[in-house]
Amino acid sequence: MSIQSTISIKNTTKIFNQGSSNEVVALKDINLEIKPHEFVSLIGPSGCGKSTLLRLVADLIVPTVGEITVNGKSARRARVEQDYGFVFQAATLYDWRTVTKNVQLPLELMGYSREERKHKAQEMLELVELGDFGNHYPWQLSGGMQQRVSIARSLAFDPPILLMDEPFGALDEMTRERMNLELQNIWDRTDTTILFVTHSIPEAVFLSSRVVMLSPRPGRIAEIVDVDLPMPRINEAREDPHYFELVNHLRDTLRKIEGEDG
Amino acid sequence: MRESSSAAGRKFIRQTFSLILILTMIAVVWEGVKLIGGDPWWPDSNPFGLEYKPPFRWKFASDLNLPHLWDIFGTFSQPARRNGPPLIEILVSAAFFTFREAVVGFAGGTLLGLSLGTLFAHIKIMEKGCMPYVVASQTVPILAIAPMVIIWLRAGWVSVAVISAYLTFFPVTINTLRGLQSPDPLAVDLLESYAASKWQILWKLRFPAALPYIFTALKVSATASIVGAIIGELPSGIRDGLGGAILNFNQYYISGPGRLWATILISAAVGILFFILIALAEWLVLRKRFRPVETV
């Protein structure tokens, strides 16, 4: 027996609208093991099922075939027992709540005391460098700040796993690079395991310990690349020749996949 | 935050100003029409002591059909009956009476609408099965329903409140349903990812998200509930409310047209007042969600 996987995906297939004329095989025979404190990125052309895979792990949808275990339990139990925090493409902050109340939302649901909630929310906001913005409303913040609040919210209850669905997709390049550094930093300081969906190859290489490339229709794992760049990564890592090598290699793979597909 | 409150102040001033402007324009047109085609003025019948003959004589602009504004406002201070209290006193107490019936009906209708909307949002079959009846209920004229309700429940303020509720619950049902369904799917997924219960999703997300929709319905319902109460009073023989006053002054219209107009004015004022109260509550509850349209 090897070390126990944090996330284990076995022979998993997901078919949408099964049996109807618009049946789509989103994922086919996926096998993936993610070890504790790994940072794994899922990339691939749009429609390859990377978000679907993430939502399967989160038990927001259920697989048609296959078995997914998270922290050694079924995906469903892991969701009920709050083993993961999910960061969506949009910040999904509730605009009737202040920033701190938004961060406290999961804690309210999980029955933390008022004192604990306040303390925890402040700690998380400081982690994403928004300590002074607790009493602001979401509409008073920029897009990047909103997404940082959403990350603070997902970390508030110390989940051992973080599932992130293109969290920085809507941000401008500058903000995105800064957010990458911050996420890198958070990951480095905590022992969180992260499964990260992105459509940006440089982002995936910069952040991850492993990059999983999916091919579309049906979604399969095309290639898994270990990113053996030194940790923690700072901006200089982006100028490392090996970084370029990996980015170029993944780009070639992606081009090949898209060539076959189109 | 400061800017938004001063912007709200400016908005309030602008709205008040435009309200005054519109009221003035209505008054000018009203008296203008009478100046061109109304009845002749006699020195003892107008506050200016003037004698004047308009160039035309339009029937609709006669003193009977379209009384002078000063005659309408003049009736407020005159007694409606010999040796009775001034009309304004009668109308104010009638307005309170009707307002009370309307508030009870409004509360009942709101409660019913919120419950139905919530039920429909959660049970698709209920929405599919019941919505047509809810819609159909509103196509039956209230004037036909009102006598029936009074037969069922006997004449009294309860039956009036029920009629008022009948007009209230529909917009609240529709908008509650729409509002509860309004959250972004991702916002729902977020709570699902916390394994939140249906009840928690309703309370933490769907209901707060529905509030702006619900308040829009409440503003419509507030005025409708007053209309419902007035109409409900008509066949029930209740004399203490505005409906009774309208019926009464309608009978004696020939001898004093101003009194009916004055009653209509007060009825409108009650509706507007109720609307403003709800708008105020809306502002109190939703002001924090203020979104600047332009940021300079």
Structure notes:
The complex is a heterodimer of chains A (262) and B (296). By secondary structure, chain A is of the alpha/beta class. In chain A, 37% of the residues lie in helices and 23% in strands. Chain A contains eight helices and ten strands. Chain B is mostly helical and 296 residues long. Chain B has ten helices and no strands. The mean pLDDT of chain B is 90. Chain A binds chain B through residues 58, 60, 79-82, 84-86, 88-90, 92, 94-96, 105-106, 108-110, 137, 139, and chain B through 184, 186-187, 189-196, 200, 204-205, 208-209, 211, 288-289, 291-292.
Instruction: State the domain count of chain A.
Output: 2
The CATH homologous superfamily name of the largest domain in chain B equals MetI-like
Biggest sheet details of chain B:
none
Number of helices of chain B: 10
How would you classify the quaternary structure? heterodimer
| The CATH homology group name of the largest domain in chain A | P-loop containing nucleotide triphosphate hydrolases
Structural class, from helix and strand content of chain B?
Answer: mainly alpha
Q: Compute the number of strand runs of chain A.
A: 10
Radius of gyration of chain B: 24 Å
Termini separation of chain A: 42 Å
- The second-level CATH architecture of the largest domain in chain B is Orthogonal Bundle
Tell me the layout of helices and strands.
The complex is a heterodimer of chains A (262) and B (296).
Chain A (H helix, E strand, L loop, with lengths): L6 E10 L7 E11 L4 E5 L6 H8 L7 E6 L2 E2 H6 L3 E4 L11 H11 L4 H14 L15 H13 L5 E5 L7 H17 L3 E5 L3 H7 L2 E6 L4 E7 L14 H21 L1
Helix pairs in contact in A: 3-4, 3-5, 4-5, 7-8
Chain B lengths: L1 H36 L31 H7 L11 H36 L1 H16 L2 H12 L3 H24 L4 H9 L4 H39 L5 H10 L5 H30 L10
